[in-house]
Amino acid sequence: MDMDLTVLGSVWLKLVACVLFLLLQWTENLTLPKTSTLCLDKPCQNRAECREAPSDFLCQCKSPAPVLPSTRCDSSSALCQLSICQGNATCQPTGAHPGELVCQCEPGLLGQECHSSAQLCAQGLCGDTSQCLAVQDRSPGYACICQEGYTGSSCEKKVDHCSPNPCRNHAICRSRRDSPTCFCVPGFQGKHCEIEVNECVSWPCRNGATCLDKIGHYICLCRPGYTGSSCEVQIDECQSQPCLHGGSCHDHINGFSCTCLAGFQGERCETNIDECSDQPCRNGALCVDEINSYRCDCSQTNFTGVDCEIPPPPCWSQPCLNGALCEDENGNYTCSCWPGFEGRNCETDVGECDSSPCVNEGTCIELSWKTLYGTEPLFPTRYNPRHASGFICKCPPGFSGALCEQNTTSCTTNPCHNGAICEDFLGSYKCICLSESQDGILYGGRNCSEPLVGCEGHECQNGAACMPFLSEGVHGYSCICKPGYTGSYCQTPTVFSFETIGGFLHLQTPLLGAETYFNITLSFRTVLKNTLLFQRGSEGVSLSLELQETHLLLDLKSDPQPNATIWTLTLPQDVSDGEWHTVEAVLGEGTLLLQLLEPCQDGDNCSATAQLETGALELESSLQSTFVGRSYEGGGSGSFIGCMRDLFVDSQLMVPENCLSSSVVNVEQGCSHHDRCLSGPCENLGKCVNLWLGYQCLCLRPYVGQNCAEESVTARFGQEDSASYAVFTITDQLESDTLYLSMFLRTRKESGLLVLLANSTTEYLKMWLEKGKLMVQVNNLKTLMGKTVVNNGEIHFVCITIKEGMLTLQESDHEFRAMDVQPVSLQFEDVVYVGGLLDRHETSAFGGYFKGCLQDLQLNERKLEFFPLDASVMSYRPDLMVDVTPGCTSDDSCSKNPCQNGGICFSLWDDFTCNCPPSTKGQHCEEVRWCELTPCPPQATCRTLNQGYECISNVTFQDNTTLVYHGNRLISRHLTSIVFSIRTRKRNAAVLHAESGSDFVTVSIQDGFLVLELLSGPSSSSSLSPVTLHSPRPVADGEWHVVELSMASPWANNSQWIMVPLDEKDEPTISDAMTGNLDFLREGVDILLGGLGPESGWNLIGCLSNVEIGGIMLPYYGPAEVRFPRTQKEKFNKLSKEPVQTGCVGEVMCEPNPCLHGGICDDRFNLFQCICLPGWGGDRCELNTNTCASNPCQHGHCSVQDLSYSCMCESGYTGTNCEVKVDVCASHECVNGGTCLRGFNIYSCLCPDRFTGPYCKPPKLPVSICGDEQQNYTCFNGGNCSDTNMMCDCLPGFSGHWCELDLDECRSNPCLNGGYCQNMVNKFQCVCEMTFAGETCEVDLSAENVSSDLLLSISLVSVALLLVLFGVATALVITLNRRATRGTYSPSRQEKEGSRVEMWNIVQPPPMERLI
C-alpha cells in the first residue's frame, strides 16, 4: 500500500509539471504580435532579398555594382523623366545641391540601352542618408530605401525590434539599431534570459557554510560562530567584553576564553580568590581580602609585621615621660631625655631655680612648670617638653636682663641721639657715638647730639684721615695716618728701601731687665725668595727673621755654637710676591711668637708659637743690638733687597731720618721700586717675574733662553720618505716611581712608531700612530687609544704620565685615563728608540718609520736633545741617529706634478694643494664635473660618475629599432644585475638578448609578463640549468614598471636569481635553479637591446629607461652624439649608428578625436579613453544616458537608471510616468456594508451596527453591554461584566479595560527554522518552510529518520498547492495581457545591475504566500 501511494504521488507531480510547462508556452504565445506575410510569397526575383516595410515590401537586388532596388527588380527606374535609367544604372547625387539625384550608367555599358542624358531626381525626398526608389502606379511615385534600424515613408521612424518581445522570464526588451537587447531580472541570464542562474555554483558561502540557491540570489546557512551575507565574518564573542575584572578575552570559533588577572578565577573571571581562606594573619588580627593579595589589620593588637607576627617592642608601652625619645636595645629600652629632665624614664624635673639665679629681687620661674602655660605672659601658649629646660627671671620695675642684673632706669628715656648706643653706667648712662657718619656729619657730646666740626680746615697730610672730637667743650681733630707715615699730621714718612747689596740699619736698644718683653714689628715688600729681614743679638743669644723659599722663618739660638739649642717657627704663606706684608716677632714670658698681621685665608695658619726656657738665656745683654737688612757678620749672600716701613722695635717706631748716619748704610728714604717686567722682556708668551733688580722669564715649551727667544731644535724624520730613527741610552739612575714622557708632534702620516722604551728583558712602553690616532701600550698588556686625529699637519703637544697605577694620555686639551696599569720606572741603561727600530721588519709592526717632526722631547723632565743648544742643560744625547735632520722642512710634494687636468700645484708642509681649473675638483683635480660642461644632447640629463659621465634619458623603440652594444674589454667588476624601467602595450617582445657559446641571457615580454631566461657558467658544468623567472603580474599595460633582476648571492660563482617586486604588494620572485653571473658580456659579445633585429616580429614597441648591467649603463648616444668622450674605465660602447628617438612618445590616438558628443579624448599611451560629458556613455560616448531629459515623469521626480529611467511619484499618483491619480477607495476592503471614507493617501471604513474593526468585520467573540442607564460600557471578545467600575473580566488571550486588545502570542518568535507565525486567539500557529514541520517547525524533513508516510503526505499537500498556484498563474497572465500599459511597474529600473534588473514591483507576493 505504501508503494502504491508513492507511485501515485510521483504521477501527480509529473502531471503538474506538464501542466505548468504548457501554461508557460501558452503564456509566451500570448505575447507574440502578428507577423507580416507579404514576403512569404517570395515576390522578389533574381535571388533578391525581400525586406518588409510597415505596409509593403522592398527587394534588395544581388549585383556586383551598386544598383537601386526596384519593386520587383524587373522594371526600370522611373525617377528620371523623359530618359529612364536602364540596365545596370544607378541613381546617384549630383553634388551640386543637397537632394539632387541623376541616373548614372556604369562604365563600359554605354553601348547598351543606357542613356547618358537624365532628368534631375526628386530633391530631399528621402533625406541625406537614405536611398530613393522609383515606384510605378503609386503616388508620389517613389519610395525610400532606409538604412538599417529605420523605417517609414521618409525613414523617419526607428525599427522596434522588441515587437514581438523575444525576451523571456519577465526580462525587459530594449531595441537597438540592428537587434533587440534583453535585460534580465536577477536569477536569469542568456541572450533571451532563458537560463536560470545558479548563484551557488561559485561557492560564495565561506567557512563551511551551506549555500541555498534562490531566484536572483542565494542564502548562506552559517556554521555556529560565523555571520554575514556570505558567512565571511567570524562572530567576535569578545565584543560584549564578557571577561570581568580586567580579564583578557580571546576569541574562538563559536566561543571565547578568558585570561584572568592575578587574584581572579572562573570562566569569566567572575570569582575573586579569597587569599584570607588560609587565615594568614596571626595573633587575632583581622584579615582583609584584596585583589591578588591580603592585608592584616594589626590595629586591634600590639603586634606588627605583614602577618602581625612581630611582638611589640619595649617602647610600645611608651615608658619614657616628658616627651623623651624611647630607643629599643636588645629587648630593653633607654630614654633620651630632653634638657631639664633626668631619671630612667625622664620622670625627674631638674630644678633650675634651686640656686636662686635671679638678682635684684627677680622672681625665678622654671620653664618646666606646666601650670603656668597659658597664664604667664612670659611663657609660650603651649607646653613643649623639648623646650622645658631653663628658667626665666621675672624682673621688678627698673631692672632687666636674663638675671635682672641691668638697671634700665637711665636708658629707658632714650637719651642718646643720632644712632648712638646707650649703656647704663654707675647709676647713670653713657652714650657711645657712631664713629662713621651716615649723613656726612659726626656727632659728639654727652648725648651725641652736637655736630663735630674739628676737621674743618684740618692739616692732615699724605692722604691721612681726619677724625674730629669734642673735649670739655672744645672741638679738635686727630690725623689717622696711612701705612708708611707718622707724626701729628702724618707728615713724616716711615718708608725706607734697600736697593744695593750690603745695605743695613743698625739699632741699639737700652737694657730692660730680666723679665723683658722683646718684640719687633715691620712691613716689607720684596721678590727675593731667600733673604734676611733682621737679626737681633750679635753674640750669645740671637733672634733672626728671614725668608726661605718665599716663606717666613723665625730662629732663636741660645749661642753661636753648633750644638746650641735652636727654636724655629715657620709660616706657610708665600710673601715674596712684591706686595706689602706685615709681620710681628715676639719673645717674652717663655713664649716665642711669629704672626702675619693681615687677613688670613680659610685653612691657612697665620701665626706660630713655641714654648721655651729663658732662665739660661742672657737676654738683656745679648739682644741690645739689632741689624735690619743683613746679619751682624755682614756679607751679601743674605742681604735684603726691597722696601720696609713702620718698623717698631720693642713697641718704639724707628724713623730713618732720626737714625745716626753711622748706623745707616745704603738705606734710602722712600720706596723707589721699579717693575722690571713693564717693558715686556719675555718673548713667545713667556711669563715675566719681577726680581726687584732684574727679572726672570718662565718660558713655555718649546722655548728656552733668558728672554724665551730661543726654540728647541726640531728633529725631522723621514725626509723624502727615508727611514729615520734615533737611539738614546739612560745614563743616570732616577729615583722615581713616576714616568713622564712629552713632546711636540707634527705629521701627516697616519701610522708609524714614535717612541719605544726597553730594558734588557722587555719593551715596557710603546707609543705609535694608527689611523692618525695615538696608541699607547704598557708592558704589552693594556692599550690606550687617543681620541683626536693628530696627523693633520698641525703641531700637537703629547704627554704620557704613569703614576701610582694610572695611565694618563694628554693630547693638547684632551685627557683620557686608564686604570689597572702595572707600574713602570725608568732605570739606568734603558734604551729609548725614537722614530723607528733598527730592524725594518720589526718597525713595520707599528706601521713603519715615523715621518714628520718631533720637538722638545722630554723624559722625566730630562731633554732628549737631537741637536743640543746648551751643554750645561741636563739632557740625554743620542747614541745613534739615521737620516734625522735639524729643522722641520717639508718635502717638495709638487715635484711629481700630482695635479691633473691642468691643475696648478702649491706646496704645503708635507702636502700639496691643487688649484683646479673650472669644472674639476678633487685633491688631484682628477674629478671632472662633466655635467657642468653640458656634454649631453639637450633632451638628455647628465649624470656624473666617478671618472666620467653618462647621458640619462628615456627612449622610444619602434618596431624596427634594435641597438647593439659591446663591452670595452676593461670591465673588471662582476656583472650580477640588470636594472631598467619599461613602458609598453606589446604582449610579446624581446627587451635584451645576448649569447656567447652556451651562455645566454634574454629579458622579454611573453603574453604580457616579464620573463628572464639565463644560463651562465663553465661549459663543463652539467649541474647548471637555465634560470627562468616570470613577473607576478603583467607589465604590458601602458604604465611604467621598474625591473630589477639580480643574483641572490652576488659574491658566489653560482646562485639563484631574484626578480625584485614590481609592486609593494608582491613578493620577490626567486628562481628554483642556480646559474652564474653575466661576466660573459664584458667583452666580445653582441648585446641586443629593443628586439632581435629587423623582420623578427619580437621587436619592442614602447619605451625604455637607461638599462644598467651590473651598474654599468648601456648608452643611447654614441661618440658623435656627445660633446666629450666618456672617460670612465668600465663601460659599454654603442655600435649602432642610427640615432634613437628620445623621450617616451606613443602613437597619436586622439587626432582626430574618436570621442563623440563632445567627449574628451585621453591618450593612454597607444590607447585612448573617452571622458564623456554628462548624459553620454559608452566607449566613444555614443550612448545617451540622460533618459530624463524629456521630463517623462508627469507628477514625480525622474532619476536616470543606466539607459532607462524611473519615476518617484508624488503622493496620490501612480503609473509608469506618474500619470494616474490614485483612488484610495478603488480597492478598499470595507465589508458588511461598510462605507469607504477617503483620506490623504489612506482610507477608513464607516461600519454599520454589529460590525467593528478597521474593515467592519463581525467581532470574533460575542460582546456584552454592561452598566445601567446612567453609565454603561461594552465588553468585547467574550468579556464579562465585573464588579469593578468600568472594567471587564477578559477571556484568555485578551486584555485591556474592555478586553479590546488581542494578545500577540507571536511576539516571542516561537517558530523555529524560518517558520512564519500566525497569531490566533490565545494561541499561535506556525507556517513552516518546505523542509521543516512540527508545531514550532522543529522537525527537519531532510533528515534520514523522516518516514515515507510523512514524505507522501507532504507531496500530496504540495500537489494541491501547485494546482492552486496554477490557477493563480493563469489569472495573472490574462491580467498582464489586459494591463500591458498599466500598473505600478517602473521600467526605469531595467538596468540596475548590468543586464539583470530587479523587478520586485511586478506582482510581488506577500511574505506569507512566498513562504508557502
From TrEMBL:
PROSITE patterns: ASX_HYDROXYL (PS00010), EGF_1 (PS00022), EGF_2 (PS01186), EGF_3 (PS50026), EGF_CA (PS01187), LAM_G_DOMAIN (PS50025). Residues 35-74, 76-115, 117-156, 158-194, 196-232, 234-270, 272-309, 311-347, 349-405, 407-449, 451-491, 673-709, 890-926, 1146-1182, 1184-1219, 1221-1257, 1262-1300, 1302-1338 form the EGF-like domain. The keyword Cytoplasm does not apply. It is a single-pass type I membrane protein. GO terms for biological process: central nervous system development; establishment or maintenance of cell polarity; hematopoietic stem cell differentiation; Notch signaling pathway; positive regulation of cell differentiation; regulation of non-canonical NF-kappaB signal transduction. It comes from the Eukaryota. GO terms for cellular component: apical plasma membrane; cell projection; cell-cell junction; protein-containing complex. Keywords: Cell membrane, Cell projection, Developmental protein, Differentiation, Disulfide bond, EGF-like domain, Glycoprotein, Membrane, Repeat, Signal, Transmembrane, Transmembrane helix. Disulfide bonds join C105-C114, C146-C155, C184-C193, C222-C231, C260-C269, C337-C346, C395-C404, C481-C490, C699-C708, C916-C925, C1172-C1181, C1188-C1198, C1209-C1218, C1247-C1256, C1290-C1299, C1328-C1337. The keyword Methyltransferase does not apply. Residues 494-671, 715-888, 952-1144 form the Laminin G domain. Its main location: membrane. The chain crosses the membrane at residues 1350-1376. GO terms for molecular function: calcium ion binding; Notch binding. It holds the Pfam family hEGF. It is found in: Apical cell membrane; Cell projection. Belongs to the Crumbs protein family. This is Protein crumbs homolog 1-like. It comes from Sinocyclocheilus rhinocerous. The gene is LOC107741548.
